User: Fold this.
Amino acid sequence: MTTSTAPIAARTASAGTLKRALALPALLFLVIFLFPFIAGPHYVILMFSAMGYAIALLGLNLLFGYTGLLSLGHAMFLAIGAYTAGYMTSTRITNFELILLVAVAIGATVAVPIGLLCIRYVKIYFAMLTLAFSMLLYSFLFKFYHLTGGDEGIRIKVPTLTAWDLSGLDTLSVLTGPLYYYVFALLVLLTALMRCLTGSSLGLQLRAIRENQQKAEYLGVNVKRYRLVAFVIAAVYGVLGGVIIAIPVGLADPTIAYWVQSGNLIFMLLLGGYTNFLGPLLGAVVFIFFQDQLMSFTEYWRLTFGVILVMIVIFFPNGLMAAVDRGRWWST
Amino acid sequence: MSAQSRRNFLKLSGGAFALGSFAGAPAFAQSPPVKIGVLAARSGVLASIGECALATVQWWADGVNKAGGILGRKVELVVEEEGNPKETAERFRKLALRDNVEMVTGLISTGSGLSVGPIAEELKTIWMSWDATTQKDVEETLPNPKYSFRSTDNEVEGLMASLLTVKHFKGKIKTVANLGTDYSYGRNMWETFMAMMKKYDMGVAPVADLWVKVGTTDLTTFVASLQQAKPDLIMSSLLFTDAFIFVKQAHAAGLTGASKLVMPAGGFQLNEMKKQYTPEGMILGHNSMYFEAPNASPLLKEFVAYYKGKTGLFPHFEADRAYSAVASWKAGVEKAAQQTSGKWPSKDEIIKAIEGISVESLGGTFSYRPDHIPDCNFYMGFTTHNNPYDIVTISPVETLNTRDYQKPAGADFFKWIQAKQFPNLS
Amino acid sequence: MLASANILVGGVFHAAVLFLVAAGLQIVFGVQKIVNLACGSFYALGAYFGISALAWAAAFEVPAIAYIPILVGSGLLLAIVLGPSVERLLRLIYDRDEHFQILLTFALVLIFEDAIRLIWGAVPLQTINVYFAFGELRIASDLAIPNYNLIVIAAAALISAAFGWMLRRTRFGRIVRATAENKQMSEALCVDVSKVYMAVFTLGVALGTVGGALVVPAGAASIDMGVELIVDAFAVVIIGGLGSMPGALIGALIVGFVRSAAIWLYPEFELLAIYVIVITVLIVRPQGLLARTA
Amino acid sequence: MTLLQAQNVRKLYGGFCALDDVTLTINDGEHVSIIGPNGAGKTTLVNVLTGLVRPTAGNVTFKGYNVVNLGAVRLARLGMARSFQLVNIFPELSVGETIAVAAISHLRHGERFFSSTARNRPVWEIVERVGAIFGFSGKLDQPAKILSQGDKKLLDVASAFALSPEIILLDEPTSGVSTADKSTIMRVLVQAARQMGIKAIIQIEHDMDIVFGYSNRIIAVHNGRILADGSPASIRARADVMATIVGRQYDHA
Assistant:
């Protein structure tokens, strides 16, 4: 029985090819890491929220890229993260780790029942059901102002870190200093975790479900369970992203959960390249900075984005990463 | 000339002015232009308000530049968009940190105000708000702001409408209904109205409490529900498009004949209150600027003519809020410059100068209290058809100054209402 | 009691408006399995274009009778221009995964929102005399139903009936239903499917634009209409059943009445009520009340 | 030892009776061919036996469990695999990955979220072994969608085998393949069955050379009823069965 070559390139790759595979992410993370030293405070805070979006998109791509489920309501988890941060900081619990933990707990408890309902459907029904749930949350946040502050939302104070005493610093230096690097560490950790998950049997089985649900079932893949696992993981990443995105804004309000925001999340994913593990990271960073420049350049920036999205959907479905990463090292 | 090309014109003219090539334009000293950040809404429900306020600020800037700028420096506007709170916070930081503007003016929605207030303090950038307050419902979330100068409490519209209701309908109405805009503003208005009804023991009972989401275009069901309730008086805090669609559909269903209407909210809908469907004798508010104020200043007359010429519409109070914000800042700079013998004053000096300053704005005098909240005139009255336009105007015009009708710094609003002896309207 | 009749008519009127928006979404999905997120934007474009058409016609002192034909005509004209061009765009990705078709229509929502502001400006527009030109049905001294509302209801009913008739009785209707049922088979029977898709998509757009033009005299046209209406349209087609025209009508009636009842009985619950129904339907009977088993 | 048991199974589609009172047992070591004209109920029988279709009456048990309530996932885990008449593969996944999916289920590594599949030795041993048996050794990296139609069908079957099931149901595994290759495929299937320790094969087959060449038991199905069930020799001897099934006297060359 002849020993075959590596069935998956990364399995026993020679040093050369492995180095090339890691060059891309290393460059991206290096740029983000050095950013506070090379860019002005405005751009650093933009990168701060770009990291939040990157985390949310990593989760969303587990659903869209790996499991083939288009969620048009993922912004509801951004809102859950933001409101958790709002409630906790306004009751003087500002410890960042605690906020993240509570947000993850709430995100998961909300995601399981919604997930159980949504994963029974695919394609258009899944998209419409997730949109319906996110608009249900939007209406709830808007209408029950006694609980949620209605259109005024809830103020979010800058969180504190257990290890780092931030009391001496003003908000700007916190956002561009310690908290920036804390979120950066979180991003690296969550990227590695997602890389591990997608490289594990979960990743392979999700892709099998995406490709052919009936065949996967007959090969013993528990489609319902793994879709739910993917949905909850995507939700938790979305909630973490939501907390991070909301901190520089300082306010949690219903517009975070509006359906157009979910549409923008998918736009970012396509821009970066959903068929690529690093697509979400690149998509978030490019979208945030391009939007910042575009909004100053023209008041009709939505029109420009619409045209760009049309071009991507028709001509560059695999987004920027496809153009950059020839070797399909990181393809989902 | 769309806003985009206007901005290019300003940039272009900046260069031209510096070269003094325009005949008659004052040659500015070599000092750099003073950059003012403008956050104007461009999309969604607030878009037309943002454009009106932006046009006013640009008119003001052109005028200032023609008259030699501020302390010899030419005014240059850096325009950004007020979107949802996240976008607005980012645009504010961009203006403050990248364009390092001298001052940022703008903002209409409460959500953006609550998010930008703390950021202005954090970045030590003067923010002259148009209409966004930093209060949640009625209590202040930014107690003693240093860099933020926010706008008048909109509850004044509710107080004035209530006082007019007491003055004209005491003993004539038994039942009232609320058709509120589902917005913090709407809640404050209804609570203020009912508190005032109790204070002046009008003995009225609410028979309907309806809330309309901003942007609703089909209000027939709300009209039908109000007809079911048969209230003597309808207090409606509806804003923008909802306001005139309601009046139009109410007229079509015969509601405006049966119940008295109170619509305290000013706004661009004044151009759409057509005589065809807007009844006479309806209480209509114009907030801090009425385009046909009885003792209109030459400034107001000049602006109304300019604005009507350019857009074919009458300007509404947001123009006054925008004008007063930038004019007060300019006055503050010039007043502070007297102490620093003409040198450009520091931010702290400007802030101290603005506190307590009075400025001639479109709707009358604007004066900033020490707690950075301005006092100004408010205009309200009963609608009438006898005017040369196709829209209703108000006459007689009741005017009040918010000095006596705005809660003092840090006061609890509802306790203050109970205690306060409001001077009765003229 | 009479006033509650007015609430009922209000509910039916709202249902008629929702049906006109949702019908376009329904026919396109029924045949091409594409969910057109931009159906609300077509409705808004129809409203704005209808106002321009009336303003243009006003220059010729057109009699009141001509208002409705002008509005419907403007809607159809706009659809004939927009429909084919957008469909040709979509055609480029028919072979691709249906997620991409939804995302293309999302791009259209962004484009149309700014395009409306570019062409018609940010200030909301309205037509004045049309709404009152048809008098009213006076039920009581202070209670009347504007005839224009009844016209809109009648128009919606007419369109729904015409649609039903077209689908069942005409040759084109049979071809459309065949293509909806099995695209390959109808292609095999030499049906030019690309022409059918072009016609059906244009028809879907026409439903939106004509609907927008017809309803705008009762209200006004504002730039955020397109984004808001898509959510109501979704609710209607999910409840009624994706792809079924009678389902769109039933769904619209349900949403219309629930909204009216909620406004009168318990306003806080108004917005939530619709989404709760949507989610219940999706759980209990995912293919919607009337669609054939999906 | 009985592996699979069908008890008075009936299946009605509206008025049409697809299966009429079918009772049969599949035992260890059997290679069963199910033959019969089109529309006789062969595929319905396999679908009922594999839990894809719920019988109108009667039940099917596999290792003591009622097949219908189990569902495909638990059935696969219990050791029942099947391939499909229409090719069923994962287009974007590579050949190796397709087989790995089955291997993961077999080894119960489905929940190992934190260990990399690429470095999972046991999985890749199965992949390489099954790959070698089915001749995919050189193509393990290729995405399934670029394989030839025959290879795709073979991959579908190979992935079923990789589950190392006890019983495997094949729906015309050699259809659409040239007669020359049919026997090579059958040899591969039988060899794979032996190597993977598969106890019983059930095969829907039309090609009489294959039926009589490889199976040790034949079930003839006609109009939803079992016409005959026995060894190849006994079936060939029954002229009536051969007439209805094959339409002429079949003399084995």
Q: What stands out?
A: Residues 1-24 of chain B have pLDDT under 50 and may be disordered. Chain B has 13 helices and 17 strands. The domain at 155-287+377-419 of chain B is CATH 3.40.50.2300 (Rossmann fold). Chains B and D do not touch (no CB pair under 8 Å).
